[in-house]
Amino acid sequence: MTVAASEKTSALASLLAQSRSTVVFTGAGISTESGIPDYRSPGGVWDRFRPVEFADFVASEAMRLEFWRRKFATHGLIARAEPNRGHRAVAELVRRGTALCVVTQNVDGLHQKSGVPQDKLVELHGNTTYALCLQCDERYDLEAIRAAFERNESLPVCAACGGLVKTGTISFGQPMPEDAMRRAEAATRACDLFVVVGSSLSVYPAAGFPALARRCGARLAILNRDSTPLDELAEIVLHGSIGETLGEAVGVA
Question: Residue 194 in 3-state DSSP?
Fold first, then answer.
């Protein structure tokens, strides 16, 4: 770590120490160090797979088949992934009471694995580690669905109401979860420090939260591998390893 980077890390540590109500906002960059590829970078998931849009999933059996083929092609990678130093640092901020909320764009469940309680976590884009009925919200374990699908490409149907079953993620064209958006907005308006970790801040409406935090008087810090469109609003911008930088700032190995 260079001297300049070390100074910025110390400045972030100081901001965190002064804060009484931090919101940590995480994107795909925090999970790449756990071996989960991001979506938008060259070589990412979208370079290899065109996303199945929600309307197509609902309207077409062929697209539902394609959706589940893609899901189970990558399911093992996510199921085996473990939280890294960055996740552990975020969980420690929650444990200390510094972070009142973790708002995440990620769907991999690694914040839960790292120890962030569900009531302190807002998943804006849902969660890919389980499935839900689109009609009645009945929840399903993925392993039973995977076993049936790999046996004869049997599509899951809700046993309770006969509705379509899909992973708990928010697909393109699917409405954002109203409760999650409300919780994220309330926490953003109430925080005194908003820390962006591993997000390109290019996907809206989620990417609007850092600017909202600044308008409400919060300080803003951005830790990401690359520059973001909101860097000019931030008090501190850090580029580099998320696990190393955030771990150092929080004091977590």
Answer: strand
Q: Are residues 226 and 136 in the same domain?
A: no
Distance CA 6, CA 183 (A): 34
What gap in Å lies between CA 124 and CA 184, rounded to an integer? 8
- Residues taking part in catalysis: 125
Per-residue pLDDT tens for 155-212? Answer: 999 999 999 999 999 999 999 999 999 999 999 999 999 999 999 999 889 999 999 9
Report the pLDDT value the prediction gives residue 39, as an integer from 0 to 100.
Answer: 61
Residue 41 has a pLDDT of 52
Asked which of 111, 144, 169 is the last residue of a domain, the reply is: 169
Nearest to 123 by CA among 137, 102, 92: 102
Residue ranges making up the domain that contains 156: 39-80+127-169
